[in-house]
Amino acid sequence: MKRIYIFVLLNLILIRGFAYGQTQRLSYRFNTTNTNLPSNNIYKIHCDKNGNVWLGTDKGLVKYNGTNFKTFNTQNGLADEDVVNLFYQPKENNIWALAFNSKITKINTLTNKTTNINPSNTKQKVIGAFMYAYQKADTLNFLNTLQIVSLHKEQTTVKSLKNIDYKTYLFANNQDYHFNKSLYEEVNWDLIQQKYFPTKKWWLKNTTRISKYGTVILDSEILFKSKDRVYRLLSIDQFIPGADKFIVDLEISGTDLYLAVFGREGGIYLAKNYLNNPKTAKLELISEKGYGISVAKDKIGNIWYTLQGKGLNVIGQSYLDVNLSPLTALTTGPYFIKAPTDDVVVINNPSEDRFFLLNVAKNTTNSYHKTDVPFTLNSIKSLSAFINPPHKALTKDISNDGRLYFSNSVAFYSADFKTKTEHLKSEKYNNIRGIRKGDYYQDKVLFSTSDDSLYVYDKRLQTITERIMLPQIGTIKDIYVQNNQLILFCTSKGVFATDFSFGKTKQISKGIFKKVVMSGQSAYFINDSELAYLDTKKGTDIATVFSTKSFLLRLNLLDFDVSRSKVHLLTDVGYIQFPKAKLAPLKNNADFNLAAITLKDTTLFYPTEKTILPDNKTKELLFTVQFLNPQHNNYQKSYSFEKQNDPDGWISFTGNNFVLTHLSPGSYLLKINVRLANVNLNQTMVYQIIIKPKFWQTTWFFMLVLLIFIAAIAYTTWLVVNHFQKNTLQKIKLENRIADIENKAFLNQLNPHFLYNALNALQDYIIQKDTHNGIIYLQRIASLHRNILEFNQKAHITVNDEKLFLEKYLFIQQKRYSDKFTFEIIADEDTKVMKLPPMLLQPIVENAIEHGFKGKTVDKHISILFKKENVLKITISDNGNGKLADLAELKEGHALYMIKERLNFINQKNNHHNNTIAFYANKPKGIITLLTIHLPI
């Protein structure tokens, strides 16, 4: 009896449980991104460290940055367009394009700068295409069928391989992957050589490849060398039947091995965990069948591949490791999932009396009665209400910790789930019907009802504090309350965010989701086909991180939950989990670009962001658009071709082409727009197209005329400035000369003999003890010298200042000569404020005293007269022995010559000749000096 009970119980568990056995990896849809490159034969794919994909094609080297394609051809620096292989130097950011005609071009992957290397400059002729390359120390080696061309510090040398050691030659590439040779079969190299190279003449077959990671591909097998021994890494004959196939490329990602196989049974194959378990691994076709050409891995693990005539394809790495645990026992739902830990998942249907426990770590599942909670769940309090909901009609676990439920009331569990409190039970709340979704934060409960009302219930006050109507957000599908500052709504119009003040409700996405769960600062959303993610701390952009549309198997997402480091999805056919750290946004845009512009005379242009077309060939232009997505036939396509700053005029087109005719010269913006309404896709790409005008309409012609005009203005300006500078220089020289003359004039004033003789006179007063007259005399000397110092700082002084100065000077001279001459100074009243240069008259007076009175004994007299006659007239006369002939030619350095020079410079500075000095004979004896002074006011 006991055995029968056990047998029945086991069968019940198997029947009611989720029978799935081994998990299976989801098969993804092929060509998730496909360039279709219809006119290019792609020979090689390489991915650089910056995330760019490089393609060697028969129409040049192509760079794909994830959005745009840039073609390098002979028009923009490539030595030859038939690129058969690529070699990459990650440290130098260089990729080398090896051309079929023995030409080599280096392209900097960051700057796109191209540099051509021409091996034909060497003395020895280079034969055939460069098929492979490798680097040894600081020397690059490029290999063809019979030669090695080495490039060392921009110098090329050619070495013949007529008598080569095949083993050394084939395994020339540096080995950057260390295979565990104990897992692979060692092969006899002599037998390999006899099989593949029976003759040394043109030994390199089409099925031979010097490949990545230090490997060699020979037809259907891959070899590697360790020290001097050779091992077979793989032979596809044991996996794929038939002779019409051979391996052309390989890639390694972790311990997985990818193969590009050429032939009827070809395509891209994956051997999961092959490098750890080569004997038990299986080879699985992961692309459509086709003639595989190349396969490469980018920096984030995406696998890029190409099949003959099928363009460029990519398989997102996140899809390669999507494992589904099939759940075959799902009956009528709804079903809900909860993951209290990373490895424990509980699936519940509230209408049934059983729940299901999935052990993720052990990959097992069991069914339990709700009264028979396994001991593993006893310590997880938040599961109590989830497993045993308070109402069988419950449709949702309302709060993330399982403490809040809605039926006809609000049921709130305590932290230990031992007590339950029901709210909204009083008669005054009878009018609240159809409680649908809600959540809580501390004592505030927020819930929506069937009439799209929002209520805030205060559990502590046990009353509804607010009723809010937010018609702009639509019908609420879910609510998540993170704190007082963040409340998220999933509605029929998108995702909205607000806080408990409800002052500002902001739409953060138009995506329609049915559930939201937060973990820390991260919010996760699902609808029937997508899982999306939002980092609430960094931004407000919701990005899709998982989509069932990417897989061949039809999936519907039922529910999800978030544990500490994983996201758990419940679908209608099984269970899926993702590590949070590996979730990355999926591309939700249309991949396309402008592939070519064909002129009526069949001239082909490969457009860039700015394309210049000749004006004489633009009567008809054919624009070819390159769509990169397989679903592009469903796009609504339109273009706008308008001059810059003009409004857009959108015109629809079908297929991949549209034609424009009779375009006038100018700068245009070509905008190409694609829309896909069912996934809310709308993307526009913009190109600048410049149609060259006639030469007289061109910018360079305008610039030339402008330059000539500017040059004319500049030359005229130079002449004016030069003339001004010359005048300025002359003025500066003049002023410097005036300053020099005036300085000399001042130096000549009151020479040391005068001061010495004046002090001798003072000594006489002291000896004679004539203190009164001595003090007066000393005061006059001091005042005189003070005037000299003051005048030295001034350009002009008044007649009155000059009169007072001369009186002091003549008084001192009188005392020196014991009152042997007399003087008089007369200044009309209207002349006293008139101006004259300082210290101008003193040398004249001094000359009359020192030289004119020399030898004369009596009646010595000096007369100074200031008069105004439109200008200032100054007359200095003496009755000394001076002769007019002595003043006929004044020599440089003479005090009177200095006066004449000062007046000349003043005339030049003021541009007139009104300042003069003249000498006349006085009757009966002496000299009359006449000065005319006219200074600007």
Task: Give an account of the 3D structure.
The model is unreliable at 1-21 and 393-397 (pLDDT under 50). The strands form 16 sheets. The protein has a 5-stranded antiparallel beta sheet with strand order 1-27-49-48-47, with no helix packed on it. A 5-stranded antiparallel beta sheet has the order 15-19-18-17-16. 18% of the residues lie in helices and 38% in strands. It is an alpha+beta fold. It is elongated and about 155 Å long. The longest helix is centred in the last third of the chain and has 50 residues, at 699-748. A hairpin with a 7-residue loop joins strand 54 and strand 55.
In which order are the strands of the major sheet placed?
A: 1-27-49-48-47
Q: What's the count of strands? A: 65
Rg (CA only): 52 Å
Helix content: 10-25%
How much beta, percentage-wise?
35-45%
